[in-house]
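<instruction>
Derive structure tokens from the sequence
<data>
Labelled lines for chain and fold:
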Amino acid sequence: MTTLAFTRRHLLGLAVAGIAAVHVPAFAQGEFPTRPITLVVGWAAGGSADVLARIIAADMAATLHQPIIVDNRPGAGSNIASKLVAEAKPDGYTIMLATSASHGFNSALFSRLPYKPIEDFSPIGQINTSPGTLLVPVDSPFKSLQDIVDAAKAQPGKLNYGSGGSGSSQHLAGAQFNKLANVNIAHIPFKGSGPMLIDLMAGRVDFTITTGPVPYVRSGKLRALAVAAHERHPAMPDVPTFEEAGMKLFTDNWYGLVAPAGTPTPVLETLNAALKKTLTKPEMQKQFIDQGAFPGKPTSPDAFWAFVKKQMPEAAELVRLSGAKVD
């Protein structure tokens, strides 16, 4: 009797253990991913962030053997996208293109954020850095940075600069420009960099300071006057830095990947390994340079998060000095 009872309990235990094993999440069994991943981008299609996201997504998808679908959720300086991802299920199937706006400037630009940049996310890895470049229409009368400053001082309030939206890196760079040059150039926010660049090429916007300029410059659609970096960009060696042109304006825009807080470590490691593989490919490095970015260096999730935490107070100070504000 005792032996029979033990046997039944033993068999029941094995059955329960078997059921539990069936329901162990795929990532715990080393099978992540088993279905498509969504990469949320807080900016409109056609802009530099969107282009970068699609380049990264396509290459990582090949490594992970699952599609990575780019989902554009523009608005409120990427706050809409950030909130969506912060509240998503932490299983690795919803990730986000984090930027120096979403996890840097926004904390100082907005009086209230619908998400917590550090607490609500888990790091995957940094992609690259991309300085802003001052672009004007190809038939613009402005041939140098000083031409714009002189025109702005001669006719206060007449000139304008475009951005991908209030709180975007272009908005912040333009506010810095106004402050450093002591001028009043009007800000025109668009719903994304793509629409803004269309109006810039059509001459309805006087200039912008944005990332991803190389394709437009090489095609002759726009003219670059200055790069907001500490050194000239390898794809545009004839374009001076802002400092060389007489203004100490720098924009350290960066991009990375994050997931919702609580995403399991094995999942983050799988995504990080795929990102690292992408970043080390020579053809990928060339694509970054061709887009106007500086080549990315693979980082661990922890190293990326340490970088973000270090950048946040620096970004806040930059916002304070620029005087830019969204609300």
About this structure: Confidence is low (pLDDT under 50) at residues 1-29.
